[in-house]
Amino acid sequence: MNMKTIGIVSANYVSGNFGELTNKRTLASIPFGGRYRLIDFALSNMTNSGIKTVGVIAPYNSGSLIDHIGVGKPWSLDRKTGGLFVMPGSIFGVTLTGNRFLMRDIAANKSFLEMDDADYVVVTGSSDVCNIDYTPIIEAHAESGNPITIVTKKVDNAEDYRGFFVTKDGNGKVTEMVTHAERTADYFMDCFVIDRKFMIEFINWFGALDYMDVMDIVSQNLKTISVGSYEFKGYFGKISNLNDYFKVNMQLLDPKVMNEVFGSDRTIWTKVQDEAPAGFKPGSNVRNSLVAAGCEIEGTVENSIIFRSTKVAKGAVVKNSIILQHGDIKKSVKIDKAILDKYVTVNEGVQITGGEAPIVIGKSKSI
Amino acid sequence: MKSKKCVAMLLAGGQGSRLGLLTKSIAKPAVSFGGKYRIIDFGLSNCVNSGIDTVGILVQYKPLVLSKYVSTGAAWDLDVAEGGVYILPPYASQTGGEWYQGTADAIYHNVDFIDMYSPENVLILSGDHIYKMDYNKMLTHHEETNSDLTVSVIEVPMEEASRFGIMTCDGEDNIVKFTEKPAEPDSNLASMGIYIFSWPVLKKALLEDHDDADSEHDFGKNIIPKLLAEDKKLTAYRFKGYWKDVGTVDSYYESQMDLMNDEVYVGAFSTHERVFSNNNTYPPLTIGPEGHAEESLICNGCQVNGVVKNSILGSGVVVEAGTVIEDSIILPDSHIGSDCKITRAIINEGVTVEDDEVIGEEDGEIIVYGEAHLSI
Fold first, then answer.
1. What is the three-class DSSP state of B41?
2. Residue from the list A255, A258, A279 with its beta carbon closest to the beta carbon of B297
3. b/e burial code for range A310-342 (CB count within 10 A of at least 16 → b)
4. How does residue B376 score in pLDDT terms, banded at 50, 70 and 90?
5. Any residues with CB less than 8 A from the CB of A259 and at least 6 apart, and which?
6. Helix (H) or strand (E) holding A218
7. Between chain B's N and C termini, which has fewer beta carbons within 10 Å?
8. What was the ipTM of the complex prediction?
9. How many angstroms away from the CA of B303 is the closest CA of chain A?
10. For chain A, which domains are there?
11. Is residue B111 within a helix (H) or strand (E), and if so which, with residue range?
């Protein structure tokens, strides 16, 4: 690709209700899929699309995020030229808001845009699950002549989604962006391509509206700003609340989803922990589940996601649940419809049963 | 640059011909082990966990996969500013070039490399042993005893001693005699092929050995007897723990099956002093609705829809429905079709086994199936 593109990953937001999972971490650093964190998808998609300069807008509560992304080595972003830039976000990230691209955060990091000579910028959120190649989107964007191209996904149950829905004309040009739709609609995937120089101008024009989301501003100025669209047809796992989180994790048990998200040549990279192979002990009985390295399973596991280095002792039964890393499930425990945060110990004989919504057990608890 | 206390030289050039198909296209140290590792991971991880940050890897036979795997050494935290990991193949000079003639000859040709770090000691390692060891303790022993050469030894059952290089020691563990595979051993201290030499002593011995037309330029056959004859101080360092040479298909199979034993598993893979590997990009494994796994080690990236018992599945192995795998080792990225029966077999790396195949049999010899198709 001749066109030079840089990336911005916005990680300064928490949306919806995630219970104790977001007590001390941003949405971007919630563990996902046995060994990943949500931001891995955005960073891997950047790297796999040939983007070698990426700015991450960090939340105020950035500990877990910085611990995870470090200098960007897993994504080959520890570069002399370009590479990973961790950029400060404003103190705001733990409110319940739909904002992904707060104008204040973008404007505060204008120098990131000014010091590069790239033609385009891919801007994305950091909390959705998809394996997407930005290359054809950037190409379509360049060809269109529009200063902004937003990426959309056709969804069937629009009423379950929060965010923007898009109306397009016959050429894919966006004519309207609204926050409510029903049944089938084109949903804005929190991802867009923008001309770098236009983005600087945009900041100059609208910088005073720093309390607004960039997309709010765009949606209100569609008459003056020409916005194109690109429909993504692959798997898109939207995560905006705890139920989504549970559902999208469980969707990995569908081999089609698993292969599309993780089976492509575009590897999803993550911080490596060098865990040993998972051990299935005598008597272990695991069905329809995802198990990460380092686990030792002696009990029964069904329809569940078991993160790395979790122990499930003899006689324990884990069903329809997500156990984050280093879980310690002792003998004769019964768990159904629960999400256990990292380092949770469930003592012998204890039963945990969630209702329609999964029950969340906070980090490092012993129950 | 500061001089190094100890530089490690890892011998990785041998063909490992007794491993047959497993080493047809790759060097023995690059052969898959324990599902997600390659044999060399143990030596490299031991180095870095012992604080040794400068490692030369001597390659000769089929080094490409090994070179690619070792890469910058970053996977073992060996990408450091002053030191690091170096692949050292034979090279030409103004007077011509030649292959490494033996283990000692390989080191001889890299004397200049070692001199670049002006180390006090040089640690010589084999790239085909499975064990976890703190070389630092051995180094301390070497220094405290003021030895010219310290050889790491392990006690083996007397009846097996004739299979090993045996060190005979005095009461203070000074080595007085070395016998390669003695018919009638007088000691059960087997050499593990791990040596710490004081560098000036080794350098002098290597230069002299090079000029000796009768020498086979081998550490066991020539260098150790030479130092003994010169009355140098040779000391045995007793290692206690798990150690296995994986030179044959049977020992390669057995030592991996040993990992199923809780004690060995925990020892080999404790989170403290981890064994690192450069093979960590797979998603977690999945066990399908009809899949079952018991008494097995299964790596990330596997998709298990059949039944797996007392077996090891390497990274990215797919097992289709109706298949039963028992007492077997499936190397990474292999695809096992449906309704197969695999018993006491090693399926090579990246091999596709068609549906309905029957490979191996209960109580049969361990067989190696297929030629490796390496994707790394």
1. helix
2. A279
3. bbbbebbbbbbbbbbbbbbbbebbbbbbbbbbb
4. low
5. none
6. helix A214-220
7. N
8. 0.91
9. 9
10. 5-262 (3.90.550.10), 279-361 (2.160.10.10)
11. helix B111-115
